[in-house]
Each structure stands twice: as C-alpha cells, then as structure tokens.
Amino acid sequence: MKAAVWYGPKDIRVEEKEIRAMLPNEVRVKVGYAGICGSDLHEYQEGPVFIPVDKNDELTGGKAPLIMGHEFSGTVVEVGSEVKDFKVGDRVSVNPTITHGKSVDELDVYDGFSFIGLHTDGGFTDLVNVPETNVYHLPDAISLRVAATIEPLAVGVQAVKESEMQFGDTVAIFGAGPIGLYTTLAARAAGASKIIVLDLSKERLAKAKECGATHIVNSGKGDPVEAIKEIVPGGVDRSFEVAGVQATFKQSIEATRPRGKMVIVSIYAGDIAWPPLQLTNKGVQITSTIAYSRASYQQTIDLLGSGQLDTENTITKEIELDEIVTEGFETLTNDKSQVKILVKLNGEG
Q1: Spatial distance between the Cα atoms of 59 and 120, rounded to a whole number of angstroms
Q2: In 10 A of CB 217, how many CB atoms?
Q3: φ and ψ at 226, to 5 degrees?
Q4: What does each C-alpha distance from 9 to 48, 65, 80 come to in angstroms?
C-alpha cells in the first residue's frame, strides 16, 4: 500500500509499505480521509518535534521512519479476536492519543501520551491498525470527510471546557489558524456573547467570521489589546492563546479582565521571555490544555452529529496522497488562506 513516510525535515516520501500484523485488541481501519495538522507541518518544516528518532517510543514502540497522519476517519475492515464493540463495516473516527491509562479520564494525558501518526504509524495510507479503545462509532449524519476534522475540533472543545466559560461570556482568541477557528466554533456553540478573533492574515480573519466570530482584529494594524478593550472595555472574560508566540502570550493576559481566565492552547516550540509581575498586577488566572479527554472526544462527535457544530467551511482543499508534499505541506507553508487540507485516501467507500 502507498503511504506518506516521514524520514526527516523536508523529507516525506510517498512509498510502498507493508502493514504490520494486527494485535488481538486492534481493529484494521480502511482510511477514508486524513487531515494535515499544524503538528504535521512542524515535523515537515523543522522536525523532529514529537517523532522519535533515537529510540523507540515508550508507549507505541514506534520510531522513524514512520507513516504520518493523526486526523483521520475510515471504515473497519477487520477486527482482532479480543474486540467486542466493533464489527466489519463500522464507520469510525480515530482518537490518536495513546496513554498509560492509569489516571481518571480528565487527567490521563498528563501522565504522558503519544500519538498514532506521530509516534507510530498513522493515517496517511490505505490501512492502519488501531487499538479498539481508540476508535469511536460515527453517527450517520457525519460523513467520513467531515469526520477527519473531529480530532482538531476536539482540541477546541477541550479548550473551551478548560476555560469554564459561562453562557454569555466574552471571548478573545489569539490566532485564526485551524485550532483557533475550531476554538471559535466551540465558543459559539457554548454561548459566548462576543467572540473576538485576532490574526495577521485577512483571509483567516474572514474565515473566522464564517466560523462565528462577532469581531475580527488584524493584529498588524494597531494595538490588539486596545482594539479588544474598545469592544469590551473591562477586558474579556476568557482569552485563548492559540498563536504560540511571546507577543500574543502577553496580549492574552492584558486583554483579560481581572479574575478572568486565559487558556494556553498553543504548543510552544521554544522558551519565551515573560515578566510574571504582569500576571500579579492583572489578577488573571492562567490555565492550559493539551489534546482532549476521551469524554471530550465523544462530545465533539455528538456535537457534530447533532448539527450544533459544523466544520464543513473549514475544509479548504482536498488532495490525493501522491500530492501530499507539493499540494499539502508546501501549500500550507506558503498559502495562509488554507485552513484544513484533507488527503483523500479511500473516500466514503
């Protein structure tokens, strides 16, 4: 089968691979669609970030070179002898997080986690073996195409839950990339009264409007904090730092009201300089989130299935596997109007 294999930065090769033998607790999924994530793009541009290269990953046993792709959906074509809740023909979404499973759900990822598609073979291929505990039934209302957006949408849902946002709260979201847009969708569904999205790209800001932003701010045209406080004079109730740079970290705190909450959603590639006295003087609470709980993943599927969330307008391009470097990774690097590029593997079949 063809697969997109990561060998190193700027070195992803589409080549023939054999699928490994399936374990008794696994299902074999025929991949319908797979999304290219910002994490995948980091691995392409400057990796390894997560991909293990010097030794096998503790949780998955994986090591480069490996098949990328952790945002994917598909159809079960084979089940292991210990699998109880899935059968051949089931349409599924794959939660790529592999954990130790020692803590309660909301804390589980903080014991350490790895990803299918980053720490072991993933979904940029025709077939992939996945533990039964990592697959979720899809309702009929969700196509396999849209289901490929469930994983990044779950990040936004978890972030909004982490913020403890109340119905009617005001929100600022720093960064209108895919996760920023999915956080926008989740904040709208959770009842935010004002959603201010900030970015440097006019194309992404326009997309934020489509996703439910009530106000958009171009961060390169004036002071972002002043712009927010013209809309919400006392500062917003909740802010989300999704850009991952020093400037927006400080701005997120400054734009939040005293005793409001700032949520760090970004994964920072390196250290930043920040004066802690800013926090002391502002009285803002800071929290962070990584990935999502199993409950949040299921809730994301339920919200999509009921129509309370809709990611169709975030899918901006669909490509074939052979085009993944030129039309996928290179396009995302150079074209900021792109949000979610999907790789079509077997489609809806």
Answers
A1: 9
A2: 25
A3: -60, -40
A4: 7, 11, 35
Buried b (16+ CB within 10 A) or exposed e, 57-88: bebbebebbbbbbbbbbbbbeebbeebeebee
Question: Across all residues in the chain, what is the average pLDDT?
Answer: 97
As a whole number of angstroms, the distance between CA 26 and CA 296 comes to 22
Distance CA 149, CA 208 (A): 16
Could you give the angle at the alpha carbon of 295 between the alpha carbons of 150 and 157, nearest 5°? 50
Q: What is the dihedral of CA 157, 175, 52, 325, to 10 degrees?
A: 110
3-state SS class at 320? strand
Contact 267, 242 (CB under 8 A): no
Beta bridge partners of 240: 173, 263
**CA-to-CA distance for 286 and 263, rounded, in angstroms?**
6
Q: Is there a contact between 282 and 136 (Cβ–Cβ < 8 Å)?
A: no
pLDDT tens column, 121-139: 999 999 999 999 999 999 9
Distance, CA of 118 to CA of 202 (rounded, Å):
31
Place of tokens 């790529």: 96
Give the pair of three-digit tokens for residue 123.
């979904």
Spatial CB neighbours of 20, under 8 Å, sequence gap ≥ 6: 121, 129
Pairing of strands 315-320, 340-344: parallel
Global confidence as pTM: 0.96
Q: For residue range 257-274, what is the model confidence (pLDDT) as tens digits?
A: 999 999 999 988 789 999
Instruction: Give the Cα separation of 285 and 78 in Å (integer).
Output: 48
Peptide bond into 65 cis (omega under 30): yes
**Whether the Cβ atoms of residue 231 and residue 207 lie closer than 8 Å to each other:** no
Q: Is the dihedral of CA 37, 42, 45, 47 positive or negative?
A: negative
